[in-house]
Hints:
Residues 1-19 have low confidence and may be disordered. It is globular and about 65 Å long. The protein is an alpha+beta fold. The chain is built from 9 helices and 25 strands. The chain has helices spanning 2-22, 225-246, 300-311, 326-346, 348-361, 381-399, 401-413, 421-430, 435-446, and strands at residues 26-34, 39-47, 56-61, 65-70, 78-80, 87-88, 91-98, 101-102, 109-116, 133-135, 139-142, 151-154, 159-161, 163-172, 177-180, 186-187, 190-200, 203-206, 210-212, 216-219, 254-258, 271-275, 278-282, 290-291, 296-297. The structure holds zinc ion. Zinc ion binds at residues 308, 312, 331, 334.
Amino acid sequence: MKRFFKVSILLLFLLRTAYAQQNTPHISGKVDISVKEGIIKCDLSLTKLPALGKQYKILLYRGFNIGLFRNDTGKVLKYSGFYDDKLLGEAAAYMPYLGKDTLALPQNLRISYTGAFPVYSDTLNSFDFKGMIAFNGKTVRAAEQSKWYPVIYDVKNDRELLDVTYDINVTCNDCKTIYLNGSPAQSGPAAQFKSVIPRQLLLFAGEYKIQNLKNSMFLNADLSPDEAAVFNADITGIASFYQNYLQTSYGERITFLQHQAIEPFGPKRSWGFVTFPTIAVAGKPFKSEINMQTGAFVNNYSYYFYAHEMGHYYFGHLLEPNSKLKWFFLESMAEFLSIKATENKYGKDATLKYIAERKTMMKDWKIKPLSQITNPDQIGESYRYHYAPMILMAMEKRFGSKIVQSFCRSLIKNAGQDTNYAFFVKTAQSAGISDAKWKAFEAEVINNTDCKNIFDYL
Ligand SMILES: [Zn+2]
């Protein structure tokens, strides 16, 4: 049975990879960077673009100037989006056209563009986030969310095709090390990066060193080998808990990236984000998370933090949330997994303490119920990170941990559907919750608008 299971997981993974590759754009070409000057110049070809007809947009970070849009014969194309257009998140949206009509998305396109960015080396900015292209004088960090590379937006399915296979040459004369997500970091000033596995492109280049371990790689981290080993052991523990809980293998060797954000973080305030297989952290250095005396993380907050980030392998990477409940399926699910992982390591008391802290935090909070969300951004940060995980905890309390575990597994298995409320309900019911029981739960728990009431059900 076990063997069969392993084989089918492997098969599933291979099929998934093969499917993903067929439907994934490929990017090749050249990227030139100056970390000191804050400049990025790209000349990139996009091939294997899907047949989306005219239902697409080409997204590119708002701070880039387009040089040329060209088709595969080299012909220079006209494009809309330059004048009086709306931004889509961090990006401007472009569409090439021919004559007066929008061009159906061709299979191949070539786009050149240049951007000059502020270098925050002394006075820092008032904000930083994953959608920024961040130069701090020593490194540049650009994640997929910024759309520093052209990203096709599939209008009909409301999907950004962030995952790409790639063959890209990066040149950076003032870089010691260059990293492109999913490939080993390489020494500068020039490096060729290739991946046949679709990846979201996180670029991190500059003055920093690489530490390679058996199950992970650390960038810019400055850990002693012993510290790195301790870190690695806790991370491996979280991964194996998830593999067991979700019955889906943790198929990645993780890159841990320490960076200095362009907004002040640390010593107590930190920020993490994930672009699989990279977990990036600013503020608290990895080194400060380790207690060499106990041979573990310094406390369970660090454990929650890394367990949350690692949970994004499942909710974020395997299941890529979209639609109205995007933030719930991305952040609340990852947070819920981190509660389970931490309980597995530190016991039930950790969870009780966690819930008690949330109760104090939310005594005056009001929310719009998940069933009534009409726009993803109605699930704000406090809602997605703090309140909504409590709904999952209440679900567990009412229906039992086996049912919720099966709900989580089923979500992963059904990745690819719109992650809206109907998907939530359908999956809960497929996990064994009857219609009548769900309706009662919905009325009592989900449709609550006063956050404090949920603690009566925990
Ligand atoms: Zn998260």
